[in-house]
Structures are given as C-alpha cells and as structure tokens.
Amino acid sequence: MLRFFLFFLCLWGVFACDDVERGDAYAGRNSLQCHQENKVVSCTEVNPLVGPVGGVSNDNAIFGNGEIEEIDWETTVSWFLKSYDHLYGFDVDPLAFYPDNVERGQDVYMSVKRGELAKLRIRVDPKIKDDFHLHQIDEKKQIISSDVYQGGDICVADICLREIELSKGDYAVYYGNVDKKRYVHVIEFSKDEKNIDFVQYGDADNSNCFFGEENGCYNRDNVEESFNEVFSQAVVGGRFVERKPSDFKLDDVLYVDLTEPMNLNDYLSDVVTQIVMEKNPDMKSKYEVYQKYMVQQSAKIVQRDEKKVELNECYDKNSSKYACEPLERKIVSMNSEIQSLRKKIEAAHLSFMTVSHIDNWSVNVVLGINEMSIGWDLPSNALSGTIVLQNYSDYNNVCTKYYKLTYDEGCLNKRFPMYLVSSDPNIQQKRIEAEMVDFDKESNSFLLKLYNVGSGSGHYRYTLVADVYPIVPGFPYAVAYAAQIPGTFVNGFPRKDGPSAVVGGLVWGAHTSGQNSYNTLNHEIAHTYGMSDAYMSNDDPFIYKSTEETNLMNYATPIGPKIAYRPKQVVYTSKNERIKKNGKYATESQWLCMRDRTKCVYQ
Q1: Could you give the CA distance from residue 34 to residue 302 in angstroms, rounded to a whole number?
Q2: What global pTM score does this model have?
Q3: CB 171 within 8 Å of CB 184
Q4: Do strands 118-123 and 445-451 pair parallel, antiparallel, or not at all (unpaired)?
Q5: Considering only 214-223, 294-303, 535-544, which range has the smallest mean pLDDT?
C-alpha cells in the first residue's frame, strides 16, 4: 500500500480518570482563589463584592468564619469574567488565579463569530467606581474610543458586577488617566466548519461502555456535540458524517489480527489509504491500473529469471550454440515485454500521481471504537499443550482490563475467556479459557495454555478470538492514537522542501469513561489538524488535575477541554521535550492552529 504518503504521530499516554476533582467551568464566576499541595490544586470561588456584612446569606460560607474578605484591587486576579452566555473562547492564563502570579492575567483574549458581540462580565471596585473607565485602544495602546463603559454603567448601589457586550477590538481599564494594565482583546473570526467522517464500531450502550462510573462510548451525536463545545473556543464547528465501515470497504466488526507482530503504523497506513481510495474513485481506478502493471511486471521477471536458469543448464548440456537459441530468443522477448511494462508503469504512475492531489488526501476520519475483537491464527497441531503467540503486550492489556488490574500488575496465571473458531463444521465456535503461563517482554511473545478445547484435527484451521474492552494495539499505555497525513506532495509530486503541514488523519478512538473519553478523542482529532502537544512545566499545578482550565493538548494525563489563543510552547509527541525552531522554543496558538493547519508547528 501507499505507506510512503503517510507519516504517523501522536501516542497519547496512560489512562486518565474521571474521579478527580473538576474545576469551575468559567474561570471563576467572580474570582478563583487557588492553592496547591502535592501537585493537587484546590480552587475556591469568592466574590469580593458580596460578604457577610450586608451580603447575601447563602454566600457567607465561602468567606470562612465570617470575616470580611479583604481584596487588594491593584492585584486582584480577574476583572474580566466569562459570561455564561458567551458561546466562544475566553482565554486567560489560569496561573493568574494565584496571588503571586496575578500579573499573568493582565490580558484576556475572547473569540467571537464575525458580526456578533462578545459577552463578558466585568467587575469594578465600588470604592473607585467614579474613576473607572473602559476605553477602546489601538495596537499601540492609544485610546481610540473613550468610555465604552464607565463605573456608573457597571455599578448598581454597591454591587458592581455586570454583564456587558463588546465588539471586536482591544480594551483597557483606566482609573482616571492611569492605565491599570488590565486588557481584554476581542478577536473576530468567520465560522470555520470541519467535515469529519465518523465510523462507529459497536453499540454505544453496551456493558463495556462503563469502564468507570460514566458511559464513555461514542456515537455520532455525542462526539459532534463534544467537538463543537470544545472547538467553539476557536469559532470552529464540526459536521460529523456518519459512515458505515462498509462505506470504506472495512469490516463491519472491528477485528485485529495479532498472529504476526503488530505494527500499528503499517496497519493504520493501510486503513487510511483504503479510505482515501474509496472517497476518490478516479484516483482508486488509476492506482489499480498502476498496481496491475506492477504485478504483471513482477510475474514476468520471475518467468524471465526461470528461463535464464534453463538457458544456463542448456549451455552446460550442449556444445552447439544453436541448441539454446529458442531459449535465448524467448528471454529477449521477455526482456522486451518487461521493458514495455516498465513504460506502462511509469505512465500509470504519472497518471495516478497527477490526480493524487493534497485535497484528495485531506481526509479526517474518526473511528469511535465501543467494541472490538482480537485474535490469533493457531497452528493445526496447537490445541494440546501450550502455544507460543506474538503480541504479549496486547494480550496482557485486554486481560488486565478484564480483571480490572493495572497493566503492570499483569495477567500471569489468570484464566481469560475466549472463543475457538474453527473451519471444522462440528466445532465452528466454542467457548474456552486461556491462561498465560509465561511471557517475554523483549520479544513481545507469551506462552498460552488452553482449557476445554477438546481434540483438534490437522485438516482444519483454528483461530483464537476474544471480545475485548477497546485498546490501541501495540501501545498498552495509550488510550487513543492519531495517524497524521502530512502535506508531503503537491499535485501528487514530492515537495522539494519536505512536508509543510498536516493535511488530515485518522483517529483510533478506543473509549474510556465519561468526559475523559471525549476530551481524549478531541485531543486526537486536534492532532489530525496539526496541533501539537502542549508543554507543561512539571510544577504546573494544572498538569495532574482535570479542571475546565486544564489544556486539551496537555501531554500528560488527565486532560481538560481548554484551548488557548496565547502562544503555548509545544513538545514532541508523548514526551515533554520542547520543540526548537531556529534556536528558540516553538510556540503555537491553538485557536489559530485549529483554524489553519499552516499555523501549527510541524514536527
């Protein structure tokens, strides 16, 4: 297959859990106060404008033992707060929620659909409401429109928290004539719609869907809804087109053959090529012509070489030069045919390459895997005793999930339910048990003992099959995988300067549990649009916590739904090693990258 077209990227690490504490969905309805202990973040929402004295009684609990909360308005965390009614992105550095880092929150970025207004809540210190001004500014921070809002517009009595609307542009808070260095940037985008093919494997309500407490299985509607919720931050929407596996000539039941050592890159390369060909019939037909001539040439070369052997034997047996002339003429004729086929191959290759446009390879396909099976073809004499099989890591992965163990705890000497499928009409399919009695990690092989198989016959074929909780074959610690298609070719021909951007890809989406399942799937979909994993400092308080402020592209686990406009340093896939370009750490605006693949950092 055309593996030379593809380059694969993105393994996404260990399972994330849903039982971690979740953060506020709106970067603080009023303000968040956070502290960190043992890499765990705890955030409490506070409202400096409503307290126990003259405040609302049901808000008293957030102030502890009844003291009035003192707020330093020069360093307060946030003056711009996300509105529940704002449908797009709201990006502020979450580390600004910490008192020692409040200066990191001086810029708030908001995305908005072209022609609409950004909605946000603004908070004003009631003591200085008469001096509060929100001005519109230009790129040099010069005022171009005064008093878009004043303190009197925000405050009613001493309650100074109001939802406002802003058009595109940049805004600054002033106290009198003093720029307080609190800015909000409203960025307008046209709505960008992504077309994504979605293939569902298995029922979205089967018993395996509840790996944790929540259903994590996939169907078109919930995947599209989750995608739109996350990527609306970049004013991006998704149209997920439901496809049957047969639409791409794939099997209706997802079965992974593990008889030979698993190479997931090659496996997905074949799947991607098959999908691309089925979506582009003209390209497929030209490729089939190319393949036909290649097969004919290979067969003709074998025949020619066999004749050469006969010719040498003829020379050895005969002293007369004329005795071998028929063979010599045959070989000359066959060489001519091979040369003719080479010309046909070159012409077919040119014809294929000229229709192999980047647009044809720009496919985004998601496999939503709720159910799958794995299996091994067995030697005919393998039903008694023990069997040596390949791909220990995959067997151990599914068996430990069955027993709700960790992968490292292993599944040695545990019986695992399987099926024996046979071409023998008297057996066909039979429930059995298998027990791993030994394994070798280095060779990725293992020794299996079978129970309740009965006697077999060497005249029939046997296959060992298991219906399993979905996995990523070959990668026991990964929960999903994205295969990227790079822009290696222009109008079918190699770029002289190499690939420039990712143009599509395939997501292998083995479900997990609850919201983590959708975050993980969206993470991998983002990779197929070129987005890289985000660098996270090891002391970053959000690296090990699932909150609404945890970045979607966090290289570690768990991840959250946040994508940022602010440039973020990016890392090589599956490790926290920052990418360098021209001697500097590469950065990526996730909003812009999702909208335009050329804005992404190509690895």
Answers
A1: 73
A2: 0.81
A3: yes
A4: unpaired
A5: 535-544
